[in-house]
Amino acid sequence: MTDYAHETPRLWLQKMTVEDHLQGFHQLWNKEEATQSVKETVEDAKAWMLTTLPTPEDPDIDKYAILLRPVEENPQPWVDERGRPTMIGMTGTNRFSDEGMETGYCMHVAYWGRGYAGEAFRGFLELFWGLEERRRFMQLVAKVDEGNVASSRIIARAGGVKAGILKEWYSRPGSNGVKGDVAFWLIDRPGVSEDEMKEWKEEIKKQMVRKKELEKAKEERKIVEKQPAERLGKE
Ligand SMILES: CC(C)(COP(=O)(O)OP(=O)(O)OC[C@H]1O[C@@H](n2cnc3c(N)ncnc32)[C@H](O)[C@@H]1OP(=O)(O)O)[C@@H](O)C(=O)NCCC(=O)NCCS
């Protein structure tokens, strides 16, 4: 097989698509332990999956399915019911934020505690820093719940440095709107110079302006699309 983007001792990373990975994605996102927002049905999972993948308007996102390689140390079955390598998680980049391009990962609960997330994430970074189309990226940012010891450990081992706390940054489902804090960790491209980092920080600012413009345009489109319906309702 040649379409794996990267290989680690026990895992493959493969570009994530609806066609190949919806089933695995659904298995991942229908577990309360692994996600902040459970997607019960395949349709819900698909709608959510589409928001996480790159689009022509948002081409800077990378998403990889984490697959079991058929090596002895891995638990069987190595393949799913369609005969494809079992998907045990996902990793990649998520979105631009004021702190930079966010990165992360998520593993199927059945595979926790075996070092897979760390192995996959280090593999992803190796792959990412080598991508021609990502050469301008000088840093990634990981946002982690302070209590998430395993995740903090993974990022530290991957060379991340804790850079600060974002206060009241997100609210978990079921938290009645109470917002929690997260720590943000920065992971530098190996060998990056001060000038390159300065340029990158400028690029983040530009990206955030672009993102806000796109969001505004989307909102305006929604208002324009709503107007005829509202007019119809009044007539
Ligand atoms: C966080 C998560 C990815 C960890 O997956 P995993 O495959 O079990 O992680 P690993 O087995 O690679 O363990 C990572 C490290 O944390 C350590 N660790 C794992 N569980 C731990 C715990 N409860 N307490 C302390 N250390 C722990 C491991 O020993 C390992 O350290 P090491 O590399 O020094 O040996 C997984 O629990 C998950 O998907 N959680 C939900 C989603 C999430 O939190 N994503 C991260 C958002 S930033």
**The CATH topology of the largest domain, please?**
Aminopeptidase
Count of discrete alpha- or pi-helical segments spanning 4 or more residues: 5
Assigned CATH superfamily of the largest domain? Gcn5-related N-acetyltransferase (GNAT)
Shape: globular
Q: Report, as a whole number of angstroms, the end-to-end distance.
A: 60 Å
The tally of beta strands, per DSSP, is: 8
Which strand order does the major sheet show?
A: 1-2-3-4-5-6-8-7
Low-confidence stretches: none
Named CATH architecture of the largest domain: 3-Layer(aba) Sandwich
What does this structure look like?
The structure is a single chain. This protein has an eight-stranded mixed β-sheet with strand order 1-2-3-4-5-6-8-7, sandwiched between helices. A hairpin with a 2-residue loop joins β4 (87-97) and β5. The protein is α+β, with helices and mostly antiparallel strands and 235 residues long. The protein has five helices and eight strands. It has two domains: 6-192, Gcn5-related N-acetyltransferase (GNAT) (Aminopeptidase, 3-Layer(aba) Sandwich), CATH 3.40.630.30; 193-235. It is globular, with a radius of gyration of 19 Å. The longest helix has 41 residues, at 194-234.
In short:
The chain has 235 residues and is of the alpha+beta class. The protein has helices spanning 18-29, 42-52, 116-130, 149-157, 194-234, and strands at 6-7, 11-15, 63-68, 87-97, 100-107, 139-145, 161-171, 179-188. The protein binds coenzyme A.
